[in-house]
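Bug #77: duplicate submission created two jobs. Keeping one. Sequence:
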Amino acid sequence: MIADVAGSLGVSPQTLRDWRRQGERDRGERDNGLTGAEREELRELRKRVRRVEQERDILKHATAFFARESTGTSRKPSKPRRPRDCLSPCSASCSACRSRAIGRGRAGRHRIGRCMTRG
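Kept job's structure:
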């Protein structure tokens, strides 16, 4: 029966079962899982949380910036971070690879074959 109806609608039988269960939840006949309204509310609340977290991060950075500015101290420049996905080939004169002593193999070649500082 379900397979026939699903075939006539052009969907899989499992999709039809899922739709039926969701309809039962929405009508209150089934209490396991979220209703459509609850799903919508959850999605909206997650959006609001993301936005509030972004606002908090911006305010945190602004507070630190103005605190440094008001005390007259300057932020010490940080070392450049290693890129996560560096695609340029590493040369034998790459100071970062040489100073970290990684990837030095036979004949002075880098085993990793990729530069960690240039991208």
